[in-house]
Design brief:
The structure is a single chain. With about 260 residues, the chain is of the alpha/beta class. About 30% of the residues lie in helices and about 20% in strands. It has a single domain, classed as Spore Coat Polysaccharide Biosynthesis Protein SpsA, Chain A (Alpha-Beta Complex). The strands form two sheets. Strands 1, 4, 5, 6, 7, 8, 9, 10 and 11 form a nine-stranded mixed β-sheet that branches. The protein has a two-stranded antiparallel sheet with strand order 2-3. Strand 2 and strand 3 form a beta hairpin.
Length: about 260
């Protein structure tokens, strides 16, 4: 059941990637988890959280991704990212879809089917209560290898997201990670993305640059450790897909037992 309100955040779901390590031509977000495309679980979560506007960014296999929803698309707008030039670029191509929208927006990964509506509600509530320009929902992991680290300043406030590949030895010891659950003031986010410089090494535009920039200029970035560790499991290989399927299947079984 949803509780849709006019001031609820919009949702931007990034679903343009190919997923080359999956060993299939199928778009990554269409690989099934518990017999449904993984992207559909993410859309379910934002619907249940009451998101008023849902934008799905598609690229590789765009028509297949759109078609997977059948007629269940009345509240979804699909935006095409013709060239995959990073997460920042993927969000920026939604600029026209958000024209005139002055509220907040979740930015989420389409390949994270373990996402929960209650986590998004916590994220949105904290964001609104603190009047932040950006709020990140984080997780504490025993093994944070591969994830962007949440670096804090001397006052224990957010300072930056540092990707694993760029992290120092000390930063790699940080266990608080950013699992791609964010809520932004949409107008401020788009303004900053329009001026974002590409990464010098990859030439891509990274959304993760924006929170550090906001914090440095305004001190209006919040962090809420709201994501259970099991929900952060990555899906980049068939083996990881199977592991996530098992976690979600157990969760569904347990919830069915509680409901019966």
């Amino acid at each position: 059941m949803t509780d849709k309100q006019p001031n609820q955040p919009a949702s931007i779901i990034l679903a343009a990637g190919k997923g080359t390590r999956m060993g299939s031509d199928l778009p990554k977000v269409l690989h099934p988890v518990c017999d449904r495309p993984m992207l559909h679980w993410v859309v379910d979560a934002v619907r249940q959280a009451g998101s008023g506007k849902i934008i799905v960014v598609v690229g590789h296999g765009a028509d297949l991704v759109k078609g997977s929803f059948g007629d269940d698309i009345s509240d979804i707008e699909f935006v095409v990212q013709a060239e995959q030039k990073g997460t920042g670029h993927a969000v920026l191509v939604c600029r026209d879809a958000l024209e005139g929208f002055e509220g907040d927006a979740f930015v989420l990964a389409g390949d994270g089917p373990l996402i929960r509506a209650e986590t998004l509600r916590t994220l949105a509530s904290h964001h609104a209560r603190t009047n932040a320009l950006a709020t990140l929902a984080t997780s504490i992991l025993e093994d944070p290898t591969g994830y962007g680290r949440i670096v804090r300043n001397e006052a224990d406030r957010f300072a930056a997201i540092v990707e694993h590949r760029n992290a120092s030895e000390a930063q790699r010891a940080i266990r608080e990670v950013y699992p791609s659950y964010a809520c932004f003031n949409a107008v401020d986010m788009m303004k900053r993305l329009a001026a974002l410089e590409p990464d010098l090494d990859s030439g891509e535009y990274y959304l993760t640059t924006i929170p550090g920039q906001i914090q440095q200029e305004t001190n209006r970035v919040e962090v809420v450790a709201a994501v259970p560790a099991e929900d952060v499991l990555s899906i980049n290989t068939p083996e990881q897909l199977a592991a996530v399927d098992a976690v979600l299947r157990e969760r569904l079984t347990n919830s069915a037992g509680v409901a019966s």
